[in-house]
Specification:
Strand content of chain B: 5-15%
Largest interface: A-B, 31 and 20 residues
Distance between the termini of chain B: 6 Å
Shape of chain B: globular
Shape of chain A: globular
Number of strands of chain A: 0
CATH architecture of chain B: 3-Layer(aba) Sandwich
CATH class of chain B: Alpha Beta
Oligomer: heterodimer
Number of strands of chain B: 4
Radius of gyration of chain A: 19 Å
Strand order of the largest sheet of chain B: 1-2-3-4
Number of domains of chain B: 1
Largest sheet of chain B: 4 strands, parallel
Order of helices and strands of chain A: HHHHHHHHHHH
CATH topology of chain B: Rossmann fold
Radius of gyration of chain B: 14 Å
């Protein structure tokens, strides 16, 4: 049963939905800038093209690390989406502490990018990887604090199934004061996890070319891009399970589930298109200052019971 | 036509390389990326690194210093990689043809797939050249 979830839901369905989501993101960006934008199958063409290109491994890189890093990040994303789909479709698939497993696995894509950057032996890639590390330290604290809110609200349960069934009985957490604050914090953290514009400091194309990905070509770059596209689906899906009551696929609720996802995707795209890039010190100050403050307030409100 | 080649023609990422031009051709290349001309319609993106590139857009007259770098960059690009010469200087060295500083034209240094004339060429001409190149590859294979 878990094999089916791993291959069909975790990999194929998430990859397809992630590629569609990345097309929506690019098309909306193009329309915001009064452009026409790429055709529907553009993300597919990009991935297939990159898989067919020559893969160059730099002489000065540490080769095993350089080749392994994309696969490591990719497999972590596949496992996260498998866990999320398994919990969303059948509540009996949950086990104690799966929310902790997911939080850990969601840090691995960033760590994989760091590994790849440091292993490639390029100074620009090293700068990008060290910025990625600082950004990870910045957003991980408010991320975990905000995830505490649904855990507290559902009666201190570390199972996703309990959070989902509690929301099915008592209404979504996003309708309550602490839930709204935590959701705002998590959307900002997701923006940084995805490496999108206000927080695309590691990949700053105008300063350090492509950051950690500068030496990647061919299949390695394809796997990294596919990983990012899949994260673009997986992270909003995680937020929907935590705060908006999960996705259901029976009758008219399909429309409602799609609407939840599209709403979060559009918020992410609009933030990305209306903001300039921050410096790394500004991003750290932002995450450790106001964002952590809001997350602490949300946790306190959740403990009081609001 | 193989799936690999079809995907390559649908998403050619371009890398912009100036080998000592007067900046006019470079500005026209940048014009192609603006909302008015929008080459993302054809799936083209400006590749930040040479390792991500499929097409090298070369402008300028390849002087002694930059010819070495051009050759090195061409070797670093992952194959298949095409070279497009933009502007009069990169085609025939233009007014610098008798200069001591420009010993070789571009197509004696690296193989060139398409030439786009003009001093500088219009963005429309650059897009037309790219589309013609794609159609030629589709027709011959």
């Amino acid at each position: 049963m878990y094999i089916v979830y791993l291959i069909v839901y975790g990999f194929i369905l998430t990859a397809v939905l992630g590629l569609v989501a990345s097309w929506v993101d690019r098309k909306v960006t193009a329309r915001v800038q009064y452009r026409k934008g790429p055709p529907f199958f553009q993300p597919w063409y990009d991935i297939i093209k990159l898989l067919g290109k020559e893969t160059i491994i730099p002489k000065q890189s540490s080769k095993a690390m350089f080749v392994m890093a994309p696969l490591l990040g990719f497999s972590a994303v596949v496992m996260v989406s498998t866990l999320l789909w398994a919990n969303n479709n059948n509540l009996f698939n949950s086990f104690l502490g799966d929310i902790i497993v997911i939080v850990y696995l969601l840090a691995i894509p960033s760590i994989a990018i760091m590994m790849g950057g440091f292993a490639s032996g390029n100074p620009l890639a090293r700068i990008g990887a060290s910025r990625e590390m600082k950004l990870l330290l910045g957003y991980e604290l408010p991320f975990i604090l905000a995830i505490l809110v649904p855990i507290i609200k559902s009666g201190f349960s570390l199972k996703l199934a309990d959070i989902l069934s509690f929301q099915a009985q008592n209404g979504a957490f996003a309708l309550q004061a602490s839930g709204i604050l935590a959701l705002v914090v998590l959307v900002l953290c997701v923006q940084a996890k995805l490496g999108l514009v206000p927080f695309d400091i590691p990949e700053a194309e105008t300063e350090i070319i492509a950051g950690p990905l500068v030496e990647y070509s061919g299949a390695g770059l394809a796997v990294f891009r596919l990983m990012k596209h899949m994260l673009l689906f997986t992270l909003p899906f995680f937020l929907i399970i935590l705060f908006l009551g999960g996705m259901k696929f029976e009758g008219i609720t399909i429309l409602y589930s799609v609407l939840k996802y599209v709403a979060i995707l559009v918020v992410i795209t609009v933030i990305r298109n209306t903001n300039p890039r921050l410096r790394i010190d500004q991003a750290m100050r932002f995450f450790w200052g106001p964002v952590t403050g809001i997350a602490v307030i949300a946790v306190v409100l959740a403990v009081i019971g609001w | 036509m193989s799936l690999k080649l079809r995907a390559l023609l649908k998403s050619p990422w371009v890398f912009h390389l100036a080998t000592g031009s007067c900046n006019n051709c470079d500005i026209e290349v940048l014009d192609c990326l603006t909302p008015r001309f929008d080459i993302e319609r054809f799936g083209m993106l400006l590749a930040p690194s040479i390792k991500h590139a499929d097409i090298l857009l070369v402008t300028g007259s390849c002087n002694r210093k930059s010819a070495i770098r051009l050759e090195r960059l061409y070797k670093q690009a992952p194959q298949p990689c095409l070279v497009v010469a933009i502007g009069e200087c990169s085609m025939s060295r233009g007014m610098f043809i008798h200069s001591y500083n420009c010993p070789l034209p571009l197509d004696k240094i690296v193989p060139v797939s398409a030439y786009i004339p003009g001093c500088p060429p219009k963005p429309e001409a650059i897009i037309a050249g790219a589309v013609t190149l794609i159609q030629t590859i589709k027709g011959t294979l």
